[in-house]
Amino acid sequence: MHTLVIVSHPNIDRSNTQSFFRDAVSGLADVRWIHLDAATSTDQWPKQEDLQWANRIIFQFPLYWYSAPASLWAWLDELWIKGVVYDENGGLLTGKTLGLVVNSGQAAATFRMGGSNGRPLDDFLTPFAAIAKRTGMTMLPTLTVPQFDRMNEDARLLLLINYEQYLTLADPDDRSQQSDWFAAQLQAHGDGLLASTVQDVEAELDNLQQTVAELRQGEAD
Predict the structure, then answer these.
(1) How confident is the model over 199-219, as pLDDT tens digits?
(2) What is the pLDDT of residues 117-157, one digit of tens each?
(3) Which residues pair with 146 in a beta bridge?
(4) Are residues 110 and 188 in the same domain?
(5) Which Gene3D superfamilies match (predicted)?
(6) DSSP 8-state assignment for residue 144
(7) How many C-beta atoms surround the C-beta of residue 194 within 10 A?
(8) What angle, 0 to 180 degrees and rounded to 10, lies between the N-to-C axes of helices 153-168 and 16-25?
(9) What CATH number does residue 141 fall under?
């Protein structure tokens, strides 16, 4: 799968979050990580052929006043136009997926009913869902990163795993695909025994699920 990561951040050199993500993709094949604000002119921004190359497009940004920074909207205004991403017959990016990686300095608990922001984070990101629908894309669940600088090492390791899976798996939430990903990572690092163990555990869980399903079916009958 080809993944195009579009990063919008006006002060990226001061962002620990984006530095973390930039390092995370350095070893990933078929992932292009492009920082819009680093371009000296709009001519250097991703073009139509980049959109066509990608199977998955990621918009990655810090939450600025409940939306994305200006460079992302400027790029969308420049390229995401009729004849490029949609026409009178519908979306021209059908079959592709769109994902959002959004970091915030506020705690996750603030984005809920009764929290200081009063609404879930996805409520503020609905324009992107509309963009996906208009262009024929399938929207992925948002990958949110609240208060990165307060994360401990274990939390950052989990974020690294989730981020790489978000960029590379057809369905990042599918347990079997996650298991295969872990097995591939272990094999790549020379630990075939652990990889085999992961696969064995996955198979055993599938067998247990099948047994439970059959028992429930028997109760229903």
Answers:
(1) 555 555 565 556 656 656 665
(2) 999 999 999 999 999 999 999 999 999 999 999 999 999 99
(3) 104
(4) no
(5) 3.40.50.360
(6) E
(7) 15
(8) 50
(9) 3.40.50.360
100, with CB counted inside 10 A (0-12, 13-18, 19+), is: buried
Q: Which domain holds residue 220?
A: 175-221
**Residue 166 scores a pLDDT above 60:** yes
pLDDT surpasses 60 at 167: yes
Q: Compute the distance between CA of residue 172 and CA of residue 180 in angstroms, rounded to an integer.
A: 11
Opening angle at CA 76, ends 143 and 10, nearest 5: 65
Q: What's 179's DSSP letter?
A: H
CA distances from 220 to 207, 209, 212, 217 (A): 20, 17, 12, 5
- CA atoms of 128 and 183, how far apart (whole Å): 33
Look-up of token digits 């600088």: 149
List 59's β-bridge partners, or say none: 6, 100
Model confidence at 16: pLDDT above 70:
yes
Amino acid at the residue 196: S
Q: Are residues 162 and 194 both part of a single domain? A: no
> Residues 75, 128: one domain?
yes
Total domains in the chain come to 2
Q: Among positive and negative, which fits the CA dihedral 194, 199, 203, 209?
A: positive
Q: Is the pTM of this model over 0.70?
A: yes
* DSSP-derived pairing of the beta strands 143-146 and 138-139: unpaired
- What Å distances lie between residue 178 and 12, 58, 94, 124, CA to CA? 30, 19, 25, 29
Domain check: are 50 and 130 in the same one? yes
131 closest CA partner among 79, 65, 61: 79
